[in-house]
Specification:
homodimer, 396 residues, 42% helix, DrpA_SLOG (chains A, B), DprA (chains A, B)
Chain lengths: 396, 396
């Protein structure tokens, strides 16, 4: 069999090739690249292909303790990858990327998002990127995700969250899908903010087609990115692995609306595994579009968020002081102190009362009544009436 | 000054008297009764009254370590209580109770609810009770509370929760107020279940007047109870202490709708202090009537509940197996196993594909594709087509 038709010693070509050889999130591929480097890893794979797989295929170095990959796993992985070598010429995908004015990002590139390091061996071999924005913006990013079959309620909340977060300089990350994703992207754009869309298929084809305009708008200031090479079709498995990138790129994951089985819950699961705070927006318990959010709140320790301030508080611990100053929240009762309220309650509606009768009515000592009545007089709730006191006629 | 006009050695008269001498939840009164007993405590108070309070008043036994009441607290408490002795004749309130066919309950009585023991020194000296029900029903009780200015959404949910809980033999405890309270009582009644209403004022006057019919219906099978003696008016302080009884009587506290300052949050606070699970029903984040519930979920570790089954699960740990069998929840994806879904995704929409091309497309080994395709054939998703496979024409 012929060797690979491109120069596997070119790190860019080699890394790009791995986005075609292995499916997103393939941990064995990550372990192999970590051990040999993308180029040498391809070389070895080509060698196995030429020599045939008589004995189990294990890369140079054998089964190391640290990569924790068994002989069987190595062999099964090779069996997964070899078929992909048949027609592999990554220069084709790179020219498809050039055709749409995109760029390839490698780990180590200045623009490579540091947050992806948390994915360890499941980090992408490379990213296919389009758009005028940069992924290395020194800004916090928040993932806002939800179901496609969203309600007007969910879309309104998603857009509002995105607007307020974008106004605070937060990058809104989502999946470019219909429903909540689109509402989040639109919200960020309407606030002239930054937003990133992570696709499950190649960036050459903006998917879904109905969101082409929206994704083009995202690319004006932000980026559209994907792990699979151009020409790759989005599939269920790729959607699920795409979700891990959304979860990794966001420092917080906010689920706005999700059905009981929504893929948004999968994004939340990835965020949880990556130790990112997971937040859920509650909704009517009668709305199936909120069932997944309530499930996250009930069973997965998600944080209940109702506005952007709640989300910013989840970001704050990691440095920035982005949370707006919340107004001081009123107590469970109105401004009256307990003593004052007890004395006021004891005052008859219309007639006046003496200190003694107030003490009996309120169950307080006369000294306590004097203290309470004094404050109530200051606040204008009561006024003197002969030897006693009465409720003020004027509004307190 | 004359002695008290009634026989303070009669335990019932003495205990009843304390519900007039001290305000609900007065911990010093509880400590005094615990030390001397209700009767002797009154006697001592009468003695202090006769002899005047020159030196700080401390009961026989001085300031004991265990009751943790300081000299100053004893003296201040006495100053609170003495004014109440002026016109004290509890026989009057007892005759008011007789007039409405009520009964007085004392700690130690067979019907005394054991749950109140958790209130320790803040437990009531006695309870004034009306209704054909009994407070010692061997059934679990759940508190369902919420704001008066509730929405149709909240009232519907409260009623539905009460109906389903009552159908499972759970007693619904609430405060008899307008809004959520009333909806909870009505729900339980509509299911021919038991419900208890805890009032903030005397049981001689069913409050609020607009709920008289409802409270009369509650008394047919359940009870209306209060800590303050008949003739006592409901005041803010008494509402707050009434809430502690609701929290104590319920094994779980469910807040259905609560504004940011709603008194229902005070009930939840009492429940939290009593180590009762606090549950909150979420609602639209745009509804101020749910702001308090979301606050409980976000800041106070309340459990998010969306139906009666969720509430029953909170009851279950303490013994009964009340929770209905939940249907097995579907996974985040449909029935397809990951392997099957990856193979199916790789199959072209209309044309057939070989094992080899499927392996390349899916990023799987041919052996894995064979395994996956086998299951897909069994489930009717795919069918053989010449040397390859295609998606089934019939519905899977």
């Amino acid at each position: 069999m012929p060797d690979l038709p491109f120069d596997t010693t070119d790190p860019r070509l080699a890394a790009a090739a791995w986005t075609r050889v292995a499916e997103p999130g393939d941990p064995v591929a990550g372990a192999l690249r970590a051990r040999l480097g993308a180029g040498a890893a391809l070389e070895w794979l080509g060698h196995v292909r030429r020599s045939g797989r008589s004995s189990p295929a294990v890369p140079p170095g054998g089964t190391l303790q640290e990569d924790g990959v068994t002989v069987l796993e190595w062999d099964k992985a090779v069996a997964r990858w070899l078929p992909r070598l048949e027609d592999l010429d990554i220069r084709r995908e790179l020219s498809m990327l050039d055709a749409v004015g995109g760029r390839l990002l490698l780990p180590g590139d200045a623009e490579w998002p540091a947050a992806l390091a948390d994915l360890a061996e499941r980090a992408p071999a490379a990213l296919w990127v389009r758009g005028h924005g940069r992924l290395d913006r020194p800004r916090p990013a928040v993932a806002i995700v939800g179901m496609r079959a969203s309600t007007g309620y969910g879309e309104t909340i998603a857009a509002q969250l995105a607007i307020e977060l974008a106004e605070r300089g937060v990058v809104v990350v989502s999946g470019g899908a219909y429903g909540i994703d689109a509402a989040a992207h639109r919200g960020a754009l309407s606030a002239d903010g930054l937003t990133w869309a992570v696709l499950a298929g190649g960036v050459d084809r903006l998917y879904p087609a109905g969101n082409t305009r929206l994704l083009e708008a995202v690319m004006e200031e932000g980026v559209v990115l994907a792990e699979p090479a151009p020409g790759s079709s989005p599939g269920r498995h790729r959607f699920l692995e795409r979700n891990r990138l959304i979860a990794a790129l966001g420092r917080v994951c906010v689920v706005v609306e999700a059905g009981w089985r929504s893929g948004a819950l999968n994004t939340a699961k990835h965020a949880e595994e990556l130790l990112r705070p997971v937040a859920a927006v509650p909704g009517p318990v009668t709305s199936m579009a909120s069932a997944g959010c309530h499930r996250l709140l009930r069973d997965h320790g998600a944080v209940c968020v109702t506005d952007a301030a709640d989300v910013l508080e989840l970001l704050a611990p990691s440095g920035e002081d982005l949370a707006p100053d919340r107004p001081v929240q009123p107590g469970l009762l109105d401004g009256l102190d307990p003593l004052g309220s007890r004395v006021l309650d004891a005052l008859p509606a219309r007639s006046a009362a003496s200190l003694g009768s107030l003490a009996r009515a309120a169950g307080l000592s006369e000294r306590e009544v004097r203290a309470g009545i004094g404050r109530l007089e200051l606040t204008g709730h009561v006024e003197r009436s002969g030897a006693g006191w009465r409720r003020s006629r004027g509004p307190a």
